[in-house]
Amino acid sequence: MMKHLPRLLILLVPCLAPAGELEDLLSGSPTLPFAAEFDCVNAFDLFASFASLHCVASAGPPNAGDAERIDRALRKLRHHGLVTAEEAAGTRVRICPLMNGTGLVPAPGRILLDDGLRNMGDELFTEILAHEFVHVRQFEKLGTAEFKCAYVREMSRCGGCQDDGHPLEKEAYDLQERVRALLARIAEEGG
Ligand SMILES: [Zn+2]
Questions:
Q1: Residue 146 region, left (φ>0) first, then alpha (ψ -120 to 50), else beta?
Q2: How far apart are CA 67 and CA 94, in angstroms?
Q3: How many domains does the chain have?
Q4: CA–CA gap between residue 74 and residue 83 (Å, rounded)
Q5: Which residues have C-beta within 8 Å of that of residue 66, sequence separation ≥ 6?
Q6: Cα 169 to ligand 1 centre (Å)
Q7: By residue range, what is the domain housing residue 15?
Q8: Could you tell me the distance, in angstroms and rounded to a whole number, from the CA of residue 23 to the centre of ligand 1?
Q9: pTM for this one?
Q10: Cα of 190 to ligand 1 centre, how many Å?
Q11: How close is the Cα of 25 to the center of ligand 1, in Å?
């Protein structure tokens, strides 16, 4: 989903910082009153908020083709039973520049896709969207706080990985690969 170092540093803070030290480091930062209780949810939110802010603030003028493109991909995923009508209706998808990676689910029912995908084919766009829908479901299934903590915990455990070594990512990559194979097969068959 994303490259690692800056996010890893943020995510590791609640795991590694000795009690009170973060608060001490951030003393004199009145905008960070939560420093004493900074936890895994905060770690996720800090990164997700920063990435979302960057994405939306640097998005530029609305791109006329975005809605159509998202709709095409959603229709394809729904057609193959990979996203339900309810999920499609309950999820807001936005295309804007991500600092790294191709997609992000910063909050329940919200998907950000990198604007670099505008220059890619529909197939890649669709498989990435399928990947992000897995995270939307994980939010739903685990609950918001538990998803955020599990994501941070697993990422810290595997040294910052966001590939198959991260169980929540593995589930998403597994579906992404299935979608890729499915779309390739359809293209081959001329459908
Ligand atoms: Zn992912």
A1: alpha
A2: 9
A3: 1
A4: 7
A5: 95, 118
A6: 5
A7: 5-188
A8: 31
A9: 0.85
A10: 30
A11: 31
Residues with CB under 5 A from ligand 1 (ion): 1, 169, 172
pLDDT digits (tens, 9 = 90+) for 137-154: 999 999 999 999 999 999
> Separation of 132 CA from ligand 1 center, angstroms?
6
DSSP element (H, E) containing 161? none
Residue 135: closest CA among 185, 101, 96, 159:
101
**pLDDT digit string (tens) for 21-64?**
666 766 666 555 555 667 888 889 988 999 999 998 998 887 88
Distance CA 38, CA 84 (A): 36
- Per-residue tokens: 63: 């791109």
Give how far Cα 18 sits from Cα of 15, 21, 86, 180, 182, Å. Answer: 8, 6, 44, 44, 48
Q: How far is the CA of 79 from the centre of ligand 1 (A)?
A: 22
Ligand 1 centre to CA of 36 (Å) is 30
Distance 33 CA to ligand 1 centre (A): 30
User: What does the block give as tokens for 149?
Assistant: 């903590």
Q: How far apart are CA 79 and CA 158, in angstroms?
A: 36
